[in-house]
Amino acid sequence: ASGKGSEPRRTMIEAIGLSKFYGPFAAARDVSFSVREGELVAFLGPNGAGKSTTMKMLTGYIAASEGEARIAGYNMMDNRIEGSRHLGYLPENGPLYYEMTPSAMLDFFAEARVMTAAKKQERIEAVVDICDLSTVLYKPISKLSKGFKQRVGMSQALLHDPDVLIMDEPTAGLDPNQIRGVRRTMRRLSETKTILL
Questions:
Q1: Could you tell me the CA-to-CA distances from 50 to 45, 54, 77, 169 in Å, in that order?
Q2: 35 near 196, Cβ under 8 Å?
Q3: How far apart are CA 35 and CA 91, in angstroms?
């Protein structure tokens, strides 16, 4: 049989025997799993189990003591720049510049990613729509609610239209209505992206 539905989905996120040691302490030990194209996967475990450490190793944010992390097939130690082109990462406390507005911050990230003027405008408009930021675009991030701050963080992770999203506790500290909003956004995004939460 042919057609898109019958094609095997490629592996977009892969942990192969990942471990992180700080002296004798194992923050994560021998973690292996894979996430295929188009899947939305939740990574569960108690506090201190090594979830955030594993996510940081997957994104290349910290180096693994052992093992290998791959994003879209790229080894994140050897080919981090190329892998990062396919990756949107939202750490637990996202990279927000509180003195900036969401508009200025998105402009800054677009410049850092060397987007053309047309591409920058197109992508900023897209993430403002996806993350529902139009009412707060020109307000200082420091004045925004926790829910809007989370949406601003998500918007920067989506700015370059990555294939893969890794988000560390995107609903932490949000109220029930805000959590529902984030979950709706995740479901929308999972139609076109591979997501690890």
A1: 8, 6, 19, 13
A2: yes
A3: 19
Given a cut of 80, whether residue 6 has pLDDT beyond it is no
User: What's this model's pTM, rounded to 2 decimal places?
Assistant: 0.87
The pLDDT > 70 percentage for the chain reads 95
pLDDT in tens, 61-71: 999 999 999 99
d(CA 76, CA 29): 18
